[in-house]
Amino acid sequence: MSESNNPVIDLRSDTVTRPTAAMRQAMFEAEVGDDVYGEDPTVNRLEAMVAELLGKEAAVFVSSGTMGNLVSVLSHCGRGDEMILGDSSHIFLNEQGGAAALGGIHPRPLPNRPDGSLDLEQVEASIRADNEHYPVSRLICLENTHNRCGGRVLSVEYMDAAGELAHRHGLALHVDGARLWNAAVALNVAPARLVQAADSVSVCLSKGLAAPVGSVVAGSADFIRKARRNRKVLGGGLRQAGVLAAAGIVAITEMVERLADDHANARALAEGLARLDGVAIQPETVETNLVFFDITHPELDAAQVSLALKQRHILINPVGPRRMRAVTNYHVSRADIDTVVGAFAEILAAGAQASQGKVYVYG
Ligand code: TLP
Q: Do 108 and 223 fall within a single domain?
């Protein structure tokens, strides 16, 4: 069940989710210790649980998805090494180029296909030969689900093929699994199976799963030892972090299956928007909780629509001049979706009237 007593319908992201009552209780009661000494029993428990869920030997708790990815790529690559990744990936677009800035890692972006995948033939062709002119190809990064590509899900077969390709060439495979839980629910497959071929995975607890803070990186015991060192140098060695990990344990035990509700709501939103003139969207491409669409109305752009929605207590961000992204989450109910579609209908209709000379105020 979603919790939707909030007067604001916030679809800006699933990062806006607030901790549940069960999380707050677990945080209150958490047993803690100094995690840099490895002595926080709640952090240790969370790490062991996530390692098991992802089928890896070990895991480390980090403060954010950005830190999870950075710690991972720093643990796979040295300075001047190259990582192959999508040109629409979060690591490439939205993490300040941290891998290059802090790790001297050379990014090799390849075009993401609309379904979030990389063309594996192109990936293979991009792996460098042994030649002193070239950086050393070390890592392939995938994102599942893929944020910018609309929350699209990469299949088990694709993930396996990418891992096989990486390993055949002596490269590692990292998965930005900020929303891996959504992918696993959408595919009805165990998360461990989905990332079986990956050498490292970063998963978020504070997106759809509604924990207040935190991500976890999983991989081999040796990899996680390096990741712990890198976490520390980035200032991410937390102390009594069990208060945070406690919420994470509730997140992974109680909040994964309900993501199916977010997916159904996202599809309902997409179908509702598809019926309106002035919006372009393909509802069949909405596989999880992210809904991207374009405002095609002749007088309104995405910023204007976002502002008009805000006046109706609905928050949806523009992500381009015409493009918007709505993210269903724990606090958004099915009834809220109907409210949102109704608001869009009104705004688009009023925009059309404005073009016929009637007054419509956005600001
Ligand atoms: N994504 C945020 C914004 O940064 C865009 C969002 O609202 O979707 N990987 C992926 C695929 C992500 O979508 C995000 C966050 C991250 C990593 C980073 O996670 P945080 O915000 O915890 O550093």
A: yes
The whole-number pLDDT of residue 7 equals: 86
Residues 42 and 162 in one domain: yes
119: number of Cβ within 10 Å: 13
SS3 content of the chain, % helix, strand, coil (to 5): 45, 15, 40
Mutation probe of ligand 1 site: the residue of 10, 61, 85, 90 with most atoms within 8 A of C-beta? 90
The distance in angstroms from the start CA to the end CA of the chain is 35
Q: State the amino acid at position 119 in one-letter form.
A: D
CATH number assigned to the domain comprising residue 184:
3.40.640.10
Q: What is the dihedral of CA 312, 317, 321, 323, to 10 degrees?
A: -100
Domain termination site, one of 208, 227, 254: 254
Q: Which of 11, 40, 22 is nearest to 243 (CA)?
A: 40
Best of 203, 207, 291 for a ligand 1 pocket test (most atoms within 8 Å of beta carbon): 207
CB 290 within 8 A of CB 266: yes
Closest CA to 260 of 19, 1, 32: 1
Model confidence, pTM: 0.95
CATH number at residue 339: 3.90.1150.10
Question: Which residue is listed with tokens 């209908």?
Answer: 345
CA distance linking residue 117 with residue 114, whole number of Å: 7
pLDDT at position 116, please?
Answer: 98
Confirm if 16 and 10 have CB atoms less than 8 A apart: yes
As a whole number, the mean pLDDT across the chain is: 95
Please give the tally of structural domains in the chain: 2
**Six token digits for residue 111:** 């075009």
**pLDDT at position 351:** 86
Measured in Å, residue 327 CA sits from the centre of ligand 1 at 12
Both 115 and 207 in a single domain? yes
Residue 109 CA: distances (Å) to CA of 33, 84, 88, 89: 41, 6, 8, 9
